[in-house]
Design brief:
It is a multi-pass membrane protein. The chain is mainly alpha-helical. It contains 8 helices and no strands. The radius of gyration is 17 Å and the shape is globular.
Length: about 200
């Protein structure tokens, strides 16, 4: 049951991330290859970086070759419904929050199966949750969302900590997942709703 739940949420997450990447590709007037690749890199990039850093092979998309196709075609499908996307903004905010939380939890799990330290587990979760978006923003010549004042990396780190605590306090893995997801998604959506930010550093000589 846990595996099926994780898999279902993971598929939803990579599709949502691919579609949001496709919208950015459209704003930059990329061709179809650019849309396909940006969707793929955004959805699967964080997990790939994590696996390389942790020497965890094969990579998830190598083990499941359907994932690049799912993300790529989800990005291309976005082209056909792009003009209606403004009506689905709230839905995409929710799906993006789900993606961030699911990727973070899965990154933590990978590090935990390797019996790594607490710090490495939290960093693994953040890399999985955030680095796909960093790659997307770099390729689009933009400052990554992770490095701005918006609470994105903070949500990922906090979710990883909650999940790690639950793994020691709760025996049921489904409950661990549910608690971490409720916390992470609520934190992310509340930060958007009330415009919570971290202090900014501004230096001008």
């Amino acid at each position: 049951m846990t595996f099926d739940l994780y898999t279902t949420l993971y598929i939803i997450a990579i599709i949502a991330e691919a579609m949001t990447a496709a919208l950015l590709a459209g704003k930059l007037e990329m061709d179809l290859v650019g849309v396909f690749l940006l969707g793929w890199i955004t959805a699967l990039g964080g997990g790939s970086i994590r696996d390389v850093l942790l020497n965890h092979y094969p990579l998830s998309w190598v083990r499941h070759p359907s994932y690049p196709l799912i993300t790529g075609f989800a990005a291309l499908a976005t082209i056909m419904v792009a003009q209606h996307m403004h009506r689905l903004r709230k839905l995409f905010l929710l799906l993006d929050a789900i993606g961030l939380v699911v990727f973070t939890v899965m990154g933590c799990q990978v590090a935990m199966t390797e019996h790594l330290s607490v710090v490495c587990v939290i960093i693994s979760g953040m890399i999985t949750g955030c680095m796909g978006g960093v790659l997307r923003d770099i390729l689009c010549n933009d400052i990554p969302l992770l490095f701005r004042s918006e609470l994105y990396g903070t949500v990922s780190v906090s979710t990883g900590i909650v999940f790690l605590l639950c793994s020691h306090l709760v025996e049921n893995r489904n409950i661990e997942l549910i608690i971490a997801m409720v916390f992470g998604i609520s934190f992310r959506l509340l930060s958007i709703r009330y415009n919570w930010t971290l202090p900014r550093f501004s230096y001008r000589s």
